[in-house]
Amino acid sequence: MTLRSVLLGMSSLFVLVSAAGAETLTVATVNNGDMVRMQKLTGDFTARYPDIKVEWVTLEENVLRQKVTTDIATKGGQFDVLTIGTYEVPIWAKQGWLVALDKLGAGYDVDDLLPAIRSGLSADGKLYAAPFYGESSMVMYRTDLFAKAGLTMPAAPTWDFVAEAARKITDKPGEVYGICLRGKAGWGENMAFLTATSNSFGARWFDEKWQPQFGSAEWKTTLDFYVKLMKDAGPPGASSNGFNENLALFQSGKCGMWIDATVAASFVSNPKESKVADKVGYALAPDTGLGKRGNWLWAWSLAVPAGSKKTEAAQKFIAWATSKDYLALVASKEGWANVPPGTRASLYANPEYQKAAPFAKMTLDSINSADPTRPTVKPVPYVGVQFVAIPEFQGLGTAVGQQFSAALAGQKSVDDALKAAQDLAVREMTKAGYIK
Fold this sequence. Notes:
- The termini are far apart.
- Residues 3-20 have low confidence and may be disordered.
- The protein contains 19 helices and 10 strands.
- The chain has 2 domains: 19-135 and 298-356, 3-Layer(aba) Sandwich (D-Maltodextrin-Binding Protein, domain 2), CATH 3.40.190; 137-296 and 372-431, D-Maltodextrin-Binding Protein, domain 2, CATH 3.40.190.10.
- A 5-stranded mixed sheet has the order 2-1-3-10-6. A 3-stranded antiparallel sheet has the order 8-7-9. A two-stranded antiparallel sheet has the order 4-5.
- The chain is 44% helix and 12% strand.
């Protein structure tokens, strides 16, 4: 055997041993822009950790939820890192389905995470998911239409002001509608908006004994206000409009105001995508003076399922993807305006980000004003601002959303929609054993 053949054999053996020694992480994620960008930047992670390979399973949101929920409930171990929302974290942590993130490394700086976001991803004082990006909701409005109508938007408006302004700037013949709000049925569509809004009107899903509250005066006031406002100042077909439909309406100049996710600010202010990019102002979600604003709290986050056998490597990946260094990496490639928002205090203290993102302060103020542990005026037994963190909420929230969407469409009265919602909720909560 020649020296050359011996060396080649040793080289091949080294490659085989290295490959065998490399851990492969399977990451399940949603197919939105920020996560697609993360996949493209994975080379930065593998350069730091050459002994860890990353395989991606990228899915549409509804499919992702279904597959991830099935896998984690059975501890199937198909995934090592999960992309999950603020809704799932407290439920799954309580079930023992998630690994506490206590090995993110000394340089991770968990105390830099925004308190409201961190609180929603924690249970019993432990962090169970690290936020990739976070959001609240706020008012986005047309400064030119307000100026034309002689109106000045307060930094912290009331619902009465918003309603008056919406009716004043509406020009239906000119296809300009004073306000665009979600109407499409779904626990994460119209019910995200309406639940957060109802908090500001003093309503709640359940009282301290889990009794449904859709028969209350506060819910009646909330839904009456919403339906009448949308009839007077909303676009046609509003009961079919969700986030994407209202975004398109606003960007094309057909909405005077839009109350929705803070992440939309970078879209409506982008001149490549929005006809009104230079005419957008921002304000906090409205209130009624009761101490709660109508804004929600959400984060897409990364977590480790209890079924994974690679928890240390998984936490290394999560620490990389949700770190300060990752934000700087995205900024170097895409510019500061495009970094994942809403997770770290240091980002909002960064002058470069403040300059690139005129909506930064209002986003931060909106996130900080939401409290998932005390979401309502009256006490409640649940956690969650625009959702109730119990397993039954996905189905119940969507069923109630269908009733409220029908009221918006004029297919049933507000009173009938609320009665149907109450009956649905009582039946579901009795079946699940919350009430007798």
